[in-house]
Records
---
Amino acid sequence: MKNRKKGLIAALILLLIAAGAYFAIIKMNQAEEEAEAEEDSLVISSVDSDQIMAISYEKDGKKLSFVKEDGTWYDESDRDFPVLQESLTDMTNELGAVSAIRKLEEPEDLSEYGLDVPVLTVHYETSDNKQKDFRVGNTNDSVSGCYLQIDGDDAVYMVSSDFADAFIMDLYEMADMEDFPTIVSDDITSVKIESGEQALQLTTDSNVSSGWIVTENGEKKEDCSSSSITQLINTVTGITFKKDIEYNCQDMSVYGLENPTASVTVDYTETETVHEDSEAADVRDGDETETEAETETKTVTVAKQAVVYIGGQNEDGDYYVSMDGSNEVHLLSAGTAEQLITARAADMTDSGIISGTLSEAAGIEITTGSGHWKLEKKTVVMEVKDDSVNVAETETSDNGEDGGVDTAEETENEPETEVKWYVGGKEIQLVDLSGAYSDLSQMKAEKILGELTEPKGEETVNITLRWDDGKETVVTFTEYDSSFQLATVNGESRKLVNRRDVEKLIEDFEELLQ
């Protein structure tokens, strides 16, 4: 028993020794890794970035120089240029501590590293008159680095490509210029696009199904689809300048902006917080009385307007643009500009023929080559007798007039009702009428003409839909060519419908009504 205990103790001691050796090895490896990391991140140049007062760099034969005065960076050659301060902050941060991934003590041929003719040179000066120059050569993509040499140091270093990337921008990539305002689509009240003699305007109106009234050259367009309008509104709110071109243009004709190709005017609202001073109660201080002012914060809705002019194109097809009242010139992508310039009401026209459902209809009149029918919807009052449901002999018409039911005989519960359709005195089964009606409600135009067209062919069918709200929709189909019939909706003739769809509509209604 004693021998067994001694064996267990010995095994435990050996286990503790092995564990200690294991952790010692881990510590050694960690120390080696830290040492390697320190070697890999060798700091080869450091300076207090806040003390840098001048930066210049040259790339591809172009030199840019910036100076810092009273905490603000300026373009040395044009102090009025709107320098984006953050871009210079990025540069000073990069220069503050330059670390090397690798060091070559005695390079034999600088051309092997692209340092005989550097692709980039960087110079800075500090407030205490210290200065330093860097030369950047070839890039080594395998380690995401580039070769660098510092004046006064014969060694060549491999540094992160981030160093060179901080100095690749041209002047207008560092410009703090205006942007098209950020506008929420729900805040837009009107959009007007003028191009040549063409004027398209969208105005919000909660009384129409799409939520927008569309006019083209002053003529109101009734059947524009909500999805198409939304797409155009999204194009407007998505306007983003691709590039800044000139911050103080004195000759807009250079960019085709003296007589613009088009203009886009957006009226919208914006919520702002205002502070107003109001008089408080009088405060007595001894024998004197003073009136203290209180500041009240209010949220107000302010009407805003943004106007952008679209001018000529550059060699890549993008368009020069400027904002109303501004001398700044920018680039707008060809795709966005052309969506605006070419926008037409016809492109937004709903391809459907009608939008109302059968449940919203109060009556239907249809005339074909075989006859004329008038369908009426009635709401029938149901009555309960002997535990069975029967239709009352008298009916309530769709105009709400009393059809003769004695209300005194009604039970305490509201009477059950049922919607029925009749042609003359004949009841039409709702399921059968729904099938024929869907031929019209689901019908889509395969082509939409750009301009209104006078119907010239023979009329094949005329349908008048009377709605519950008292409005009417009149649809007429006439022969157009061997493939299409022209649909005229409330006097507007632009939609071409496959003739087979019209023939099916006529066939189904005639079969139902004859």
---
Amino acid sequence: MIDRETVQRILDAADIVEVVSDYVTLKRSGASYIGLCPFHNERTPSFSVSRAKGLCKCFSCGKGGSPVNFLMELEQISYTEALKRLAKKYNIEVKERELTDAERQQASERESLFAVNDFALNYFEHNLTDTDDGRDIGLTYFRERGINDWAIKRFRLGYSLPKGDALYRTATAKGFNEKYLFDTGLCAKTEEGRVYDRFRGRVIYPIFTTSGRVVAFGGRILQAKKEGVGKYVNSPESAIYHKSVEVYGLYQARQAIAKKDRCIMVEGYMDVISMHQSGIENVVASSGTSLTEGQIHKIKLITRNLTVIYDSDPAGIKASLRGINLLLAAGMNVKVVLLPEGDDPDSFAQHHSSTEVEEYIERNSQDFIAFKTDILLKGVVNDPIARAGVITDVIESIALIPDPITRNVYIQECAMRLGMSEKLIVQQCDKLITARRDKEAMKKAKEDAARTLQGVDKQETGTSTSTQAPPTKPEETEQDDSLYLAKYERAVLRYALKYGAVEIGDEAYDQEGNAMSITVIDYILGDLEGDGLTITTPLYARAINMASQLLRDEWPSARTRADERIDKERQQMWEQGVAAIRDSGCSVADIDRREKELRARCDEMVRGARAVVAQHFIEKQMASCDDDEIRRLTTDLVSERYQLSKIHTKHAHIETEEERLYSLVERAVYELKDAVLECQQRSIRRKIKAVCSQPNCDPSQVLALMQENKRLTEIKAEFAKFLGERIVAPRR
């Protein structure tokens, strides 16, 4: 486990924009950045990244969080592994303590699978370069294919020894659990129960995630192929490997793809390796399978521009056209390049320089619709029925293009190429688009109905609506009261997490009666405690208690570190400003005036910088903690957008949340207290009804309850005066 001091150094160093940019192409939008969400397919960017807050958030699917949470969600890794990944990125030495037995038992199964794969990766690499079989067979094969040492190291190529269970025996001898060797597909058993290595006698192509974790392997047999033995074998699906979302070479190519804003797609492992070796590094492969939506989504996060390279095999081209249709539907800009007859990307890259390859791609790129039309029309020009089928196929592809302007351009081009009426093609496209939308709407309706029937939709308490009996009483229950109260507790908690360490005016006094500042969290907890109240929703109570503890334990040292950094920045700003003034000052009076202005700017910078540190301290800490529920809650709350109450919208000059922070926090606490009173009155009304329903109703008991209800009503009336408007309970 990583010690707390190291964790804090990692959190301080991690820049959310830099971390997210490793996976998503971001563009500045005001004070934040936006990009396509990496957690779901979308055409319009809704993924927002704030450097000041240290948070990211998708306003469509809701996922996001701190740099730690982002990596955990995207890579499906543990909290500790995410911290290690950030530490590696920022060159921070990780200090760990030994885990207890209980902590070892809680270690993620996914991490065990990754650990086995990491072992296998190093094992295969060792075999290739440091064993006789590896050098004589595996390395010789790569040399014959023209692959050099640079490419072998870049793609971590390896070799699996031909002996049936060599990897199994080596791994188990080193203490690896055989369960994970089988779960990753590295090893398997025959029907007789004999263990064997899946990749025995093959050269190995590791498959990495976008962040560089090995999730699977591909192996090519080198000896004479036996009957029933495939030329290539790949890792099976596992908890960490889903072939429909992994793209071979994307880890090695992602920086070049982002730089050139274009991805080149080829078919196989060797195609990718040879292209990279020739100097064309923005190349990935579909690994011989049809493109999937998951793979397209990963590429689209980096670029929308894709060039597909085909060799001259017509059968292979036609088989891959469906994958291109998926690219069009995803809004990708697709170009196609056909290589000279007899060449594939591997051989073409081996026999041409990078400049020659790039020039050929540039000269011979054509848009996909034109390419598809030419390919499908070959041999059917004089066959009206077949020609009609080709035209229908091409129009179906055009109808998939989501952007109406791009679609219209292709319609015009298609009409000219096919000698057809543009109006007719538009009509056919409109029919196909309408039919597809109707189909999608029907599918969604069925899914919604299925979720309702299965009781997937849940209340905030987490109980399924389908398992709850219909309420037998029209009045509110205690559970209703809890849900009602939780809405107001959430509003108060939002201020505690978003502004917890911020000081909000001189509202507290020391023993001498001198005014002193008080933080948002201290104000909230102190005000509630003064009336004997606490946060009752368990998760919210845990969150505000954690925030309060952070304020006590971590904030003083964090503030000191921040002050030291800010003071250095102020000193640099002052020295640079003074030097500039002395160089350009025209008189003593002018120098004095400008130095005074500089001092004011420096002081303002310090105040602003300290305010920013205070504002984001609690949210950054809690959005990066090891509690999954707290992390998600913090991200959700601090990302919620502030809206003024209607009664205050006329004060346009003070609409920002920060400027009105004290009055907003005070109001939120009063509204929570008002909600508590409302719940108490509901409870009294239930008690009155219960007493009156008894055979021997006690009038004095009913009177006492009514008097208590009247007292609460009077208190609520005072609250209403302060709040300035009638309190209306939110609809449930």
